[in-house]
Design brief:
This protein is of the alpha+beta class. It has one domain (4-84). Helix content is 27%, strand content 27%. The protein has two helices and five strands, in the order ααβββββ. Strands 1, 2, 3, 4 and 5 form a five-stranded mixed sheet that branches. The relative contact order is 0.26.
């Protein structure tokens, strides 16, 4: 389970450090055992983020089954995807 408060703390961290793989690596260390993944937002078409910003979106990961999938259900979330938005 991941809480809205945890998401807000992660957002604050990303906003102060920037959207980079190094930031996501630091989040992995700080928020164990939450799983973090970094990718580009356009790699996740037709999915709904739980948080939207100008430079990144955050998606929830459900890792209960053998394959990971995205979810919008905080009660089953085991991880976060930090998806960077690139300007065109």
């Amino acid at each position: 389970m991941i809480s809205v408060e945890q998401i807000q703390r992660v957002v604050t961290h990303i906003r102060s450090s920037g959207v980079t793989e190094d930031t996501v690596s630091a989040l992995r260390q700080h928020y164990q055992p939450i799983h973090f993944t970094y990718c580009m937002d356009d790699d996740l078409p037709n999915n709904t983020p739980v948080f939207e910003d100008d430079s990144f979106n955050i998606y929830l990961i459900d890792g209960r089954e053998h394959c990971l999938c995205l979810t919008t259900d905080y009660t089953v979330a085991t991880g976060l995807v930090v998806a960077e938005i690139t300007p065109y």
